[in-house]
Every structure is written in structure tokens, then in C-alpha cells.
Amino acid sequence: METLLQVKNLKKYFPVKSGTLGKTTNYVKAVDDITFDIYKGETLGLVGESGCGKSTTGKMIVNLLNPTSGQILYEGRDITKLSKKEKRKLAIDIQIIFQDPYASLNPRMNVGDIIAEPMRVNKIVEKQDINSEVLKLLNYVGLAKFHKDRFPHEFSGGQRQRIGIARALSLRPKLIVCDEPVSALDVSIQAQVLNLLKDLQEEFKLTYLFIAHGLNVVKHISDRVGVMYLGKIAEIADGDKLYDNPTHPYSQALLSAIPIPDPNKKKDRILLTGDVPSPINPPTGCRFHTRCIHAKDICKKDEPKLISIDKNHDVSCHLIEK
Ligand code: SF4
After folding, report:
1. How do the domains of the chain map onto residue ranges?
2. CA–CA dist 87, 289 (Å, integer)
3. How far apart are CA 281 and CA 5, in angstroms?
């Protein structure tokens, strides 16, 4: 498969300031040396608990945050090194859909203007064609023509997310970072928005980085899935490999939390005890050792490397190291 984007040894440390002089006394290691590829036309799911660094990763990819170090290569070019002008150009290709569509939609603009604005600013559609383009986009996302004159507060959560999707699509991007786009929606609406994203992917030949809290949400949309824990990739694999054969103890715990829709089938849930440790002072060795039921002495001392155990299946755990 052709690679669209490569993340190499990416880090994002946020300074922790204290005292009256606001001196930097420590760092929140939100993303701490992660490497993965996104292939053209695929959906890569990125999952993990709050604070694992998945959204920070997404924001660096769309240039909303500058990395502390590492590379993000888009079509072979390091986007962290681009000039402001080049970054603006790139912003057309890589779009983001946010978790809270209401907060990301200007309440004083009607839907038509919200969708038209990126096209106007970036001059990618002739002025006289913008209106018809807006109507087409509304149709693509399952909204009606008359919705164009309405304001964000007049819509339900699911409809607002559709508006956010139409706005992201208006620039005809190649890659969309979907940052927990269904987390704030009712379960029934979640499925509709996921199906819509799948249909649009086919129609517009889109590539998605789909960020979510749990493995259940990304199951039906992802070709591959990366599991993050405390700023690191714990496991990354083809979707069927990860769901059929989760190898990292953290992936196994996340997977065991997915309910089975059959009342006659029982599943042993692996309960994760304790909170996620602070990313300011992450545990030594394997960051998961404070919550892992398989932890050994080596896990407290040595950090496991992400190693390939099969084609498209990499795991970071001492249990599988040779
Ligand atoms: Fe558990 Fe050790 Fe594997 Fe970490 S390296 S996941 S602590 S067994």
C-alpha cells in the first residue's frame, strides 16, 4: 500500500511552569517517541484512555500543535519544517473533525456560510459556484437545502457533526483526522455518523486517522488500529489481527471491555485497576507495568521496544520479546 503520512519518533512535551516567575519545572510528556505510517485510502484507528496522547498526535498532524521533536512526513515532505505559506497550502489537504461540533461551529454564522468560508478563504471554488457547492455538500452529509440558512443551535448533536464533516470536506482534503467525532453522540446516532464517514471515504477517496477512546467505536471503520498508552504505541496491527489476537495486555484489557451482544455468551472482563499514571513522571521501564497483571521485574526497569511479531502487527511488551 502507498504511504500517505509517516510519523517518525514524534514527541510532544508541554512545559509545566510554577512559581511567581513561571519557570519551567517539568514537562508533561503527552506524546513520547511514537512512529507509525498511514496508508492512502485506509482508516487508521488510534485508541486509548484520556491523556494517552492520541488527540495531541492528531493535532500535530493537522499543524495545530508544533512537535517537540520528530518528523511528520506527508507525501514524503516533513510538514514540521514548512514555511507559514506552505503550511497554509497543506491545511487544504489535511482537515480535522472535532469531538464537540458545537464548540467548533461559529454560532453567529449560518450553516451555508460555515461551509462556504473555507472555500472562500482558500479560493478553491469560483465565487459564483460556492452556493451550489454548499448545497452539494449538504446533500452528501444527509442534510437538506433549507438547512443552509439555519444556525448551529437549531441542530441536534448528530446534525452538527454532519455540518462539521461538510465543512471539512469543502476543501476536498486527502486526509481527515477524526478526533473522537462520535464520542459526544448517542449510540444510535454514532452508528449513523460512522456509516456516513465510511460512505464519504469511498466517494471522495479519503484517508482517515480515527481517534477514539475505546476499541468498540473504531472496530467497524478501521483497517488498522494503533493502541496508545501514556504517550507510547503499545500495539499496532491490522484490525482483524488486533481484534482476534490482541497481544499487548493493555489491548487485551480494552478489548475485554467491549460488550458481546449475545446474552448467552459470557466474556471474562480484564479490569484495569488504578488510574493512568501521570505523564509528568511516567513509570520507569514499561509504562503499563503499574497496572499490568503480567508485569515482571524486567518490566519495571527496561522499556520494551515496539517489535514486529507478524506482517502488520507490532507490539511493545517483554512477554513477546525473543
Ligand atoms: Fe505488562 Fe511487562 Fe508487557 Fe509491560 S512489558 S505490558 S508490564 S508484561
Report:
1. 3-93+173-315
2. 39
3. 30
Give the torsion through C-alpha atoms of 261, 263, 265, 268, to 10 deg: 80
Which atom from ligand 1 is nearest to the alpha carbon of 304?
5
Q: What is the DSSP letter of 109?
A: S
Q: Which residue has 512512529 as its cell numbers? A: 35
Q: CA-CA distances (angstroms) from residue 169 to 132, 162, 181, 221, 267?
A: 14, 10, 14, 18, 40
Work out the percent of the chain whose per-residue pLDDT is above 90: 79
Of ligand 1's atoms, which has the minimum distance to the CA of residue 292? 1
CB 294 near ligand 1, within 6 Å? yes
CATH class of 3-93+173-315: alpha beta
Whether ligand 1 lies within 6 angstroms of the CB of 232 is answered as no
Say what the pLDDT of residue 265 is: 66
Give the mean pLDDT of 21-30. Answer: 92
